[in-house]
Amino acid sequence: MDERPIGVFDSGVGGISLMRNMLRLLPKESFIYYGDEANAPYGTKPEAEILALARADAQLLLDLNVKALVIACNTATSAAAKQLRSELSLPIIGIEPALKPAALDYTEGPIAVLATPATLRQQKFANLMQLYGEHAFIQPCPGLMEFVERGITQGRELDAFLDELLYKLKARNPRAVVLGCTHYSFVAGAIAKALPGARLYDGNEGTARQLARVLERENLLCGKGEGSVTLLTSGDPDTAIPLMKKLLAAPIAI
Ligand code: DGL
């Protein structure tokens, strides 16, 4: 048994969508969530810069004595998880686009994968496409996470943005859509509206289960206690922290 907290980070509030699943599955654990709003977005930055930011995020949480790290960001996972695992000795859990479950459910496709430009150009994603992407195609979504960071998860401005971003993809009539960025789960309702009839997938439940498995295997579960989440940001705490709290409680359409 280990009562130390679990450290979780993302470029901003997106990882709160994964945080919700982890809190549900592991209600006795204490979490420290860090959103690096001051440096967001990550998904339009070069790999070396994302790696440096992820390293700094990890260090901030290590200094708070965490027992495990969760990279609640597909972009940072693809750019930094392997490297951080080679540098650090604690368990590191990352998240990747949930293409596998979508491909197993929709063996004929078509499947669309929505993610940041940085996630989609990484070798890690190419390997995933190699395994499960026979009927999949990609859609980079620069600009979408910024809506969530502004607290906009529905409404006309977002609908207009999505209609323009996704109009070509809509013509391909995807049956499944993978939300390959943790921010996108918060706009799942608007995405479902822009792509009617498609089933949406995110990696949050699978990643939370992976965390539980790793904690159990490493004998790091916290058997007693109330559980809690401490919220931290590199951005403006007066806007970021209330938004995180609101998103922790918001309904999600997946
Ligand atoms: N939430 C992040 C992800 O899962 C990325 C958002 C960004 O900083 O571009 O990829």
Explain this structure to me?
It is built from eleven helices and nine strands. A five-stranded parallel β-sheet has the order 4-3-1-2-9, sandwiched between helices. Strands 6-5-7-8 form a four-stranded parallel β-sheet. β7, α9 and β8 form a beta-alpha-beta unit. α4 packs parallel to α6. The structure holds D-glutamic acid. D-glutamic acid binds next to α3.
Concise overview:
The protein has 254 residues and is of the alpha/beta class. The chain has helices spanning 16-25, 47-62, 74-87, 99-105, 117-121, 123-132, 144-149, 156-171, 188-194, 204-217, 237-249, and strands at residues 6-10, 30-35, 68-71, 92-93, 111-115, 136-140, 176-179, 199-202, 228-233. The chain folds into two domains: 6-94 and 204-249, 3-Layer(aba) Sandwich (Rossmann fold); 99-201, Rossmann fold.
Task: Indicate the mean pLDDT.
Answer: 96
Count of DSSP strands: 9
Fraction of residues in helix: 40-55%
Can you write the helix and strand succession as a string? EHEHEHEHEHHEHHEHEHEH
* Strand residue percentage: 15-25%
What is the CA-atom radius of gyration, in angstroms? 17 Å
Low-pLDDT residue intervals, each spanning 5 or more residues = none
| Sheet/helix structural class | alpha/beta
CATH class of the largest domain: Alpha Beta
